[in-house]
From TrEMBL:
PANTHER family: GAG-LIKE PROTEIN (PTHR47331:SF1), PHD-TYPE DOMAIN-CONTAINING PROTEIN (PTHR47331). Residues 1-31 are annotated as: Disordered. Residues 15-25 have a biased composition (Basic residues). This is CCHC-type domain-containing protein. The lineage of its organism: Eukaryota, Metazoa, Ecdysozoa, Arthropoda, Chelicerata.
Amino acid sequence: MVEESLTLANTPTHGKLKKKKKGKRTFSDETVPGCPAEETADKVKKDLLIEVYIRNLLALVNSKTNIKLSDLYDKLGSYLRALETLGVTTSNYAAMLYPVVESCLPVEILKAWDRHRLNREVKEDSILTTEKVLENLMSFLRHEVEGEEHRVLAETAFGNGIKRKDTHKPVHKDEPTAATLIANSSAGENNCVFCDRSHPSQECRKISNMNYDDRKKQVMLKRCCLVCLKPGHMAKKCHSNVRCLICERRHYALLCPDLKKVIVLLPKRKVADEEAKSTEILLTNHSSEYEIYLKTIIVRLRHKGKEVCVRALMDDGSHRSYIEKSLVAELHLSPSGTQVLSQGLFGGGISPAAEHGRFSVTVESLDRKYSTSVALLGQPKICSSFTKNT
């Protein structure tokens, strides 16, 4: 008993009790272990930690695209283990934890997990299904991380730590847009070699005042190809299928060396042709094996109460529809705009550019059963006069 009293007297608690016996009754601020107040504080800290880890899981949902798969797996595993030590076990809270963990996965991993789950689906007790699915999901992520590490190891060169270059890179194609179309069309235009305007060099009218030597000198001065008249390459490396109409060699007719001979012989042929020339008018009643007959049709033109019956000439080779200016004045047509055209002729010739007015008029059949509105270009004269062929 004496030894026990001495031992008790030396303890700190015994000394405090002795002090409290003297004087008035006091209350200590220190909590005694095992009291209800300390249990309440521990519970509050525990709930706070659970809330912190749950928020960390939710934060992974927003940052799943900016984190590596291995780091994501490590964080998910650490958060789930921490929650399990706090009492939030997968057996009791799997129904809540599984959707959160699944939402943290990237789209590619989520698709792979769906295929994996459907291929290995086994009928189990409904109470344990969610818990097993969460365990299978974490096991699947572990295998994916290990597979990714093996893939990186296989792609790394042996011994030097330099990754091999991917020779099969996917080709990225931009979506076509209107801005891209305009930029490409403007970039692809080549100005004329002879006058620097935006038209093909072989169609330039300025070359009529230049001889063969001046044309060739101008092309070489602009460092253009003598075959296709485009810059960027020489004639030896040109792949254009250009053929001369005079000598059938690889160049345009304007750069043909035989063009001088043709020009010298042209006046002699012209005199011979004029001597043997006879006056021929198209669509006349004079039959000839060299005449070409075009179809005609009588229609009614109508505009703001004015009507006139005319004969329309049907030319299948024409790309535009025209109206004589005398009919424009008779119907009092007002131009809706103008258009500058240079017409291509047979044999490669090009007529001088001329301005044509654009008019809108209603064309009707004679029985008024059909009518349509057409856009016509003004022309001083369409053809010579002709008689009706019966």
